[in-house]
Amino acid sequence: MRLQDKVALITGAGSGIGRETTLLFAAESAKIVVVDVNDDAGRETVQMVEEQGGQAAYVHADISKAADCETMVRVAEETYGKLNVLFNNAGISHANDDDAVATDEDVWDLTMAINLKGVFLGCKYGIPALRRAGGGSIINTASFVALLGAATPQIAYTASKGGVLSMTRELAAIHARENIRVNALCPGPLHTELLMKYLNTEEKKQRRLVHIPMGRFGQAKEIAQAVLFLASDESSFVTGSTFTVDGGITAAYVTPE
Ligand SMILES: NC(=O)c1ccc[n+]([C@@H]2O[C@H](COP(=O)([O-])OP(=O)(O)OC[C@H]3O[C@@H](n4cnc5c(N)ncnc54)[C@H](O)[C@@H]3O)[C@@H](O)[C@H]2O)c1
After folding, report:
1. Which residues are the active-site residues?
2. What is the pTM for the complete model shown?
C-alpha cells in the first residue's frame, strides 16, 4: 500500500479531483480528512470511502476563512493523531469571470479569496502540523492556465492559479530542509463539473479540444494518480515542481487534425 500509515487532508473532496483522489488514497490505506463547503457532497465522499472499506472523516471548512482552515487541521490531528499529506485542491471557476474589462471586482475578490488565499491558509495552518509529524507532502492544485494564456478569458481564475504556482515554488524552497515537499499540480482541461459548466456549449468544448494533442478532456481519476505519486514517498526527491498532467496541451503549438 502506497500510503500506509499516512493521514491526508483533501480540500474540495466533495467532487471532481478531490473526490477521486480521496477514493484512491483510501484504497492505498491512507486515512483522509474530507474538507468541503458542500456538506452533502463531502459526506457522500466519506460514505463512498467507507463502502470500499477505508477510513475518512468529514469537516466543513471554507478555505477562504482562516478559522475554518485552523479547524480542519486541528480535526485531522485530533481524529487521526497527525497530518502527513495536505492536498490544497478546492477552487472555483466563477461564471462571470471574463476579461479584465468585463469582470467585476467582487468576482475577482471571491476567486482570489478561495483559489489563492485558500492555498495560503491551508499552508499557514497545515505546515505546523506537518512539522509535528516530522515532515510531509503538500500538493497545491494550480492549472495549465498558469502556464499558457487562453483566448477564452477567465482573468481572475488564471491570475489566481499563477499565484498558486509561484507560491508553491517559494514554499518548496523555504521548507525543503524540514522534510516538507511542496509541488504544484497543473491539470489540463478535465471532464468535471467545474469545467463543463464553463464550456457549456459544443462550440466552446470544441474550441478547447482543438488544442489538446490527445483530442479529449482528461478524467479526474487520471489527476488522482499524479497526486498519489506526489503524496507518496515514491516522489521523495520531487519538490517545487510544476507537475503537468494535461494530455500534451502545454507541449503543442499545433495539434494533429
Ligand atoms: N476541472 C478542470 O478542468 C480543472 C483543470 C485545472 C485545474 N482545476 C482545478 O482543480 C481543482 C478541483 O477542480 P474540480 O474540477 O475537481 O472542481 P469541482 O467543482 O468538481 O470540485 C471542487 C470542490 O471544491 C469545493 N469548494 C468550493 N469552494 C470551496 C471553499 N471555499 N472551501 C472548501 N471547498 C470548496 C466545492 O464544493 C467542490 O466540491 C480546482 O482548484 C480547479 O481550479 C480543474
Report:
1. 157
2. 0.98
